[in-house]
Amino acid sequence: MPLDQLEPEPQVRLKLSTCSRPDAVRRARRALATFQEVQADRQLAFDAELLVSELVGNAVTHGSHDTGETIELTAELDTRRLRVQVSDGGPGFILGADDPEPPALDQTSGRGLHLLRTLADRFGVDDRSSGGDVWFEIDLARHRPVDGD
């Protein structure tokens, strides 16, 4: 693989392990807020925190409900992108290949995949025997101002 196609090493890496409870969402958002480079761009910070909230909330709701089960959040920031991965001990799932319509305004759930498709540059699920890893990436170039702006 040519050197320019290799993924850059993360400049900042964050790992958070928290119990699978509703307050895990708040903990994950606070952990992500420690990335000063992300917080410097309000739109990037908003998008990233919204997606982290969605992924961790889904892990709490749909992941394993065993006592003491943990949710793992890994966030990596390099010169080109922010990558966030959430892992839980749940049964895992397969992302649908279809492109569903956005949820109706009166729906109280079902916005996660739409948010990922709208706000992330890439996302996916990596299956494993004891659950799955759901991840997203946001390209930083999309959020950096052009010289002179």
Essential attributes:
Heat Shock Protein 90; 4 helices; globular; 149 residues; alpha+beta
Question: What topology does this entry show?
Answer:
Blueprint: E1 12-19, H1 23-32, H2 36-39, H3 42-62, E2 70-77, E3 81-87, H4 112-119, E4 122-128, E5 131-139
Antiparallel strand pairs: 1-2, 2-3, 3-5, 4-5
Helix pairs in contact: 1-3, 3-4
Description:
This protein is an alpha+beta fold. It has one domain: Heat Shock Protein 90. It is built from four helices and five strands; from the N terminus they run βαααββαββ. The chain has helices spanning 23-32, 36-39, 42-62, 112-119, and strands spanning 12-19, 70-77, 81-87, 122-128, 131-139. A five-stranded antiparallel beta sheet has the order 1-2-3-5-4, with helices on one face. A hairpin with a 3-residue loop joins β2 and β3 (81-87). α1 (23-32) packs antiparallel against α3 (42-62). The longest helix has 21 residues, at 42-62. The protein starts with 11 loop residues before the first strand and ends in a 10-residue tail after the last strand. The model has no long low-confidence stretch (mean pLDDT 81).
